[in-house]
Specification:
This protein has 216 residues and is α/β, with parallel strands linked by helices. 50% of the residues lie in helices and 13% in strands. A 6-stranded parallel sheet has the order 2-1-3-4-5-6, sandwiched between helices. Strand 4, helix 4 and strand 5 form a beta-alpha-beta unit. The chain is globular.
Length: 216
Amino acid sequence: MTTILLVEDHQIVRQGLKMLLNAEAGFNVIGEAADGLQGMDMVRKLQPDVLVTDLSIPGLKGIDLVRNVKAEFPTIKTIVLSMHASEDYVLPAFAEGASGYVLKDSCADDLVHAIHQAFAGCRYLSPQLAERAIDAYLQAGHGPSNDLYETLSQREREVLQLSAEGHTYSEMAEVLFISPRTVETHRNNVMRKLGLTTVSDLVRYAIRRGLVSVDA
């Protein structure tokens, strides 16, 4: 039995995915999460065989969830389920350890096949996307990055996303189990590292990075 954890912030989508996957012989959805932080916590508690996650989720960016799971639980396979077809999203997902990338406008069989492929140790890419995207990244290797986002610590990335979602220092402190003063320090560091001067700049940056959606 292949155990699966779903991370998706839209409840109706989660319910549909759960029904779809549980109807497949040999699949068992053992948990659901509505944001990245909760998802990481459930990964630690449940340790599923496969994680299926959206990229645009609150609390912790989907790409960071993929990275964290790969670092802590390298045997867990991760499938990204996303609306984004751009290489700017696809390549980083595979670079951080995803086993598959499925577009949300794919047919249901694509997601099922992606999970089977991942569990078998293979990579999977939606037919709408070119396989050469993965190979292009692997051939290019890991060159030096000029992306300022990469200079942020994991905690700073969490504070960046939560700040962009409009949470107060107190709310972020409660979610992250740190003091409001520490939250303020992290956000100041984020602003400094990214060269931002106002909260509006921070929100615009987060939207451009895909950390939050415009209607979030």
